Amino acid sequence: MVIDSKVLICRNDNPLANELDGEVIMLDPEAGTYYNLNRVGSVIWKFLEQPATLDDICRKVLSQFDVDEELCRKDTVEYIKQMNSYGLIKLSEP
């Protein structure tokens, strides 16, 4: 699936998550895998408490970090793809 501004992104119910020193740590009990999200990943994960679009996520990241808008979008798409490949999020067309 192409991740564009029409795709709705939401958390998967599987991983157990908790915040530690401003960063999110997760455990996927089904896969037996542990994840430690950096500050940007943690902001994205917390923001996805409610389903959001790529545009929504980029606006949130841009409001909290000093980053170029084009680079933010590119990196966010790659991050979303990675989270999806790990089964941490779900993507759906509206």
What share of the residues lie within helices? 25-40%
pLDDT averaged over residues: 92
Count of spatially separate domains: 1
Please report the first level of CATH classification, the CATH class.
Answer: Alpha Beta
Task: Trace the largest sheet across and list its strands.
Answer: 5-1-6
The separation of the N and C termini measures 13 Å
The radius of gyration over CA amounts to 13 Å
- Specify the overall morphology: globular
Strand content: 25-35%
Output the structural class. Answer: alpha+beta
What does this structure look like?
This protein has 94 residues and is of the alpha+beta class. The chain has a single domain, classed as Alpha-Beta Complex (Outer Surface Protein A, domain 3). It is 39% helix and 27% strand. It has 3 helices and 6 strands. It has helices at 39-47, 54-64, 69-85, and strands at 8-11, 16-20, 23-28, 33-36, 52-53, 89-92. The strands form 2 sheets. It has a 3-stranded antiparallel beta sheet. β3 (23-28) and β4 form a beta hairpin. α2 (54-64) crosses α3 (69-85). The radius of gyration is 13 Å and the shape is globular. The two termini are 13 Å apart.
